[in-house]
Design brief:
Blueprint (H helix, E strand, L loop, with lengths): L9 E2 H8 L3 H9 L6 E2 L5 E3 L1 H13 L6 H14 L9 E6 L2 E6 L2 E4 L19 E2 L7 H18 L4 H14 L5 H12 L5 H14 L4 H13 L3 H14 L4 H13 L3 H14 L4 H13 L3 H14 L2
Helix pairs in contact: 3-4, 5-6, 6-7, 7-8, 7-9, 8-9, 9-10, 10-11, 11-12, 12-13, 13-14
Amino acid sequence: MTRGSAVHTFSLREVQSLLGVSRRALQILIDAGFVQPSRGARNDLRFTFREVVLLRTALKLRGSRIPPRRVLQALSRIKDQLPDVAPLSGVRITAVGDAVAVTAGAAQWDAVSGQLLLDFEVADVKGDVTFLDRAPTSQSARRKQAQDWYSLAEQLQATDAVGAEAAYRKAIELSPEPDFHAYNNLGALLAGDSSRCGHALKVFDEALKHFADAELLHANRAVVLEEMGRLEDAATSYLRCVEINEKNDQAAFEHALLLEKLRRYEEAMQAYARCLDINPGNEEALRHLTELHEQRGDTRAVIRHLSAWRRSNG
């Protein structure tokens, strides 16, 4: 397939987002001849799937033990083998010892020599590179691509938050059915950056349209709302967790704690009592409840709760 045909290309900004690198880092690789991007209608740089794979491979292999000359040789060979668009099976390029390995389906070979690699040689593979078709047509292809984008996101999450976010969003976009884990992981990823709690909240709210009774989504939403200072809404989300799972004493405790912070003391005491009904061994709930009773001078209630706690805990 030539560049003149309907091949999807990526803009420089899209490549930066997918790879999580600066414009300068990409420009160095372009100047070194790793790729030769075309020019778009506005004279902007456009990259094919093959070029994105090569760029990510070059970036990943820089930190391996492979000599730079061998990296150049491998990339030159790989460039001739890769199509302009992503194969449905996906392509994986890895550093295996001092070799550059290419995996497509069940086959794996040395990119320079073409020699097949044995299973035991790839037991400790680092730096996996996987790029996928951006526009699958059939439902089965969309489902497979969504799964592969999700797998890529999981691989990137620890080292490349920008790329992981893009991959999770792609998995959500492509999946024929709402993907609970992609939504939840994306929301948790965004919530890890305190400046993006608003974005995380949007993800969790969207997910709850599909999974209204998902306890974990409500719990994560509550954490984000609390981080944003929206304590009333956070308390409501924790309460929803308890309504979904009557045995969730941790959510019951967090609900009570927020009510106490909001100075809704009567409701907080009832909520702490509910937490202790669920788990009589929850010492933090007992401590907060007895302190609230002591502040109100209700020593009988303190004695009653302490006695109940001792009976329940032997």
